[in-house]
Amino acid sequence: MNWFITGGLGFVGLNLINKLFEKFEKKKLKVIIYDSLKTSKKSDLKYLFEFNPTILKYKKNIKFVQGDINNYSKLIKKSKNSQYFINLAANTGVQPSIRNPINDATINILGNLNCLLAFEKNKKLKKFIFASSGAPIGNNLPPFNENCNTNPVSPYGVSKLSCEKYIEFFNEVKGLDCTALRFSNLYGPLSVRKSSLISKVIKSIMNSKSITIFGDGKQTRDFLHVEDLCEAIISCCLKKEKLSCLYQLGSGKETDVNKVTNLIMQNFNFKIKKTYKKKLLGDVQRNFTKPKKFMREFHWRPKINLNQGLNEVVIWYNKNY
């Protein structure tokens, strides 16, 4: 089994590689990590090897290639012997996209288009998975699904929506087996470089014994453990039938920021100060999904509940941060 993973040194990429080596015969796995190193380091592989030491015996089956997803010819060359193309490379987050929308569009829209064209060119490739998010839906009334109206409130949401439309074109018009997976708010181990809510809260507590919450903390999110996400990605790749253009993924549970912050705080034995500041531009008030379509087609269910998952990720941070 040959896997080509762009952005493979990131949080999801490392967890996906771990899950591949857990599920499949290790000596038959070949993984190419294609990463620009703009937001990661090659040495980040140490987090994976420490998390799952058995992979060290097979590290020769993991090849690193430094490359940008806007380098079309390099994408073609490096992915040519792979079967599964997982595009995790992205400019992530609402705030960076607001500060620099041109950079966001260059990486997310043009970069993903290059990946799709490379996928089309390489006939050995079987499945293409694009990492989208709930940002294309924006300000709408949850729970969200694939049929919700889209109303992005940030350049990040606009770029992800554009990518979804390209996926739709290549899937339905050109007949390629590709899909966009809308990830909800992810968390889990190997997330030392991740800048989303749960990672920020844990790092803030460990650095300064304080937490800053933007807004009143009543805004809600859908927190999905990365292990459940990786199971979903692999299920898509192994499906014999052609994939739909779009799937919504999440835990199906709505949790507000105050609650998840309090759950994290319970894992520390010292007093933690909370400070509330002005709501961030582009931040939606409510966000959670009901992944009924994916659950029905793939017989998939999120297995890790939030309390258990948070306990485990705090333990990981205590050992690695």
Characterization of the model:
This protein has 321 residues and is of the alpha/beta class. The chain has a single domain, classed as NAD(P)-binding Rossmann-like Domain (Rossmann fold, 3-Layer(aba) Sandwich), CATH 3.40.50.720. It has helices at residues 11-23, 45-51, 72-79, 94-99, 101-121, 155-173, 197-208, 226-238, 257-265, 292-298, 306-320, and strands spanning 2-6, 30-35, 62-66, 84-87, 127-133, 178-183, 185-187, 210-214, 220-221, 223-225, 246-248, 255-256, 273-277. The strands form 4 sheets. The chain has a 7-stranded parallel β-sheet, with helices on both faces. Strand 5 (127-133), helix 6 and strand 6 (178-183) form a beta-alpha-beta unit. The longest helix is centred in the middle third of the chain and has 21 residues, at 101-121. The protein is globular. The two termini are 33 Å apart.
Jot down its keywords:
321 residues, alpha/beta, Rossmann fold, two-stranded parallel sheet
